[in-house]
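re the bet — no i am not wrong, look at it urself. input seq straight from the record:
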Amino acid sequence: MGPGMELLDLRYERDEELAILTLDRPDARNAYSEAMVDGLIAALDAAEADHGVRGVVITGAGRAFHAGGDLKRMRDSSGMFQGGPVLLRRQYIDGIQRVPRRLAAFDKPVVAAINGAAIGAGLDLACMCDLRVAARGVKLGSTFVKVGLVPGDGGAYFLARTIGFPRALELILSARLVDTDEALAMGLVHAVVEPEALLDEAKARARMITANAPLAVRLAKRAAYRSWDLDVDTALELAASFQGMVQNTEDHQEAVDAILGKRPPSFQGR
């Protein structure tokens, strides 16, 4: 993070090559605020610009990962929830929807460390990440219809891409909560660990990725996401273009030399 840059409702810390982003409204169960949205965007911008950062971990302070929207502000029609239909539509586009757009364009790997309940937009944020590790016993749910809402931050899109359309549709329409055993079985999370081991496991998962050539990781991630909605010919053309790029990097040559020389590689991101 640049010197003098202060964030509200979010903490940004460096742990070697990882940036740790902690949602920090524990009294509100880390529900979204305008400051948290701004902080997430600023933190992701900083992590992307910092060549020393090769991966990101997102977690929550206190007992919740992220409770989604702030129900008290919804009740009072204040902040991001004020105004009529036209204004609210604009506020979603210019406000909370900045988060999925930013994460969709973020090429470095992102791991969610789900320390507590991930509800509504909180579950959606976890699904916007590349990997998800959960503390045993937490609850997860797409609970929008239970409070008379729809997944306004794009959660229907991200949940379906995470666990498949039929399972996502059932969770969205029923608004039921799932425990970590069911979440693991349906592929909603990649691993479940004891709470005290959560952050270490999330960092370890991130470091399994960041140990690889960073430019190749970023382009492989982009290829995977971009190819999802492409026809096969366009996806193959994209893959050929990316391969042409990385096959001319110093890190590719270093990887080949290290394998042939039976030594660990030293990647420089070039």
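see?? The two ends are 22 Å apart (CA to CA). told u. also Strands lie at 10-15, 18-23, 55-60, 64-66, 110-114, 117-119, 131-135, 140-141, 177-178, 191-193. so pay up
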